[in-house]
Amino acid sequence: xxxxxxxxxLAFRIKLKRWVITILLIIILFPIMTAVGYKITQSFSAxxxxxxxxxxxxxxxxxxxxxxxxDLVIGNSNIGGGTVVSHQYKxxxxxxxxxQTVEGKYNWLYHExxxxxxxxxxxxAAYTRTTQTxxxxxxxNRVKSPNVSKAYEVKKISQMKNYVGExxxxxxxxxxxxxILQKLPKGIxxxxxxxxxxxxxxxxxxxxxxxxxxxFNGKLGPNDYKGFRKSLQSAKNLxxxxxxxxxDYAHGFAKKYPTLNQARFSGIIITGKTENFKPLVNQNWxxxxxxxxTIKRVPYIKPSF
Length: 305
Prior knowledge:
- By secondary structure, this protein is α+β, with helices and mostly antiparallel strands.
- The protein has helices spanning about 1-60, 155-160, 175-185, 220-235, 245-255, and strands spanning about 70, 75-80, 80-90, 95-105, 110-115, 120, 125-130, 165-175, 190-195, 210-215, 240, 245, 265-275, 285-295.
- The strands form four sheets. Strands 1, 2, 3, 4 and 5 form a five-stranded antiparallel β-sheet that branches.
């Protein structure tokens, strides 16, 4: 009987010792594992946020028709992930107009750019969802009945007085950079050059995700195009609209046109004083003209062109 009690006491001491060791191990290892786990998850999150910012930069370089970006910053951030935010605006001949906010989300495992619900479209026009500003549209001459009716608005905007504005011009045939500049009247600046689409793709359903290059004070140089072409080559996940892959088209354009002198553009967005658009009325090299943002001129802001 005494041996049984001694055995029970010994077994209890062994169990107690094991419990104490287990508790001590938990106390010691839990903070270490927590710290290691936190470091690993933050490393994964950092990789995803960096990838997201890179993709947003490329998309902003390639698909921001006359749209400028004032920043690209991490918004809400926590242990599980966060957001990257870019605030956009338009420069209309020296006048800044608030545009939209583009946001991307990331976590440990993946990232994505939120491009849904940024555009409202009817059969007459397209507007930004947040600011309800009219979007200048391009057209495919091979599409007879686009989702948004073809626009011929350059005459109307040229009759507005004391405004600055932007107009998207779709060309009858693609033109080189030098050919475009020769056709533009004085007082008009070419802000953005559109690469076009292929086949019977309808650009009016692309949610303003047009592919093109932004000029610098109305001009493009060989180095500007070189950097742009590099972004075209590395682009991915630019979107697909009714089987038209913007990514594939970007890669194909970069391959077909290795230099600025060779590149052919299907349209442009121009800006300037509205009265200066008058010489563009009834020009046969323009098939459609779609007005975008307009701003009334004020005495304390001087137009830049």
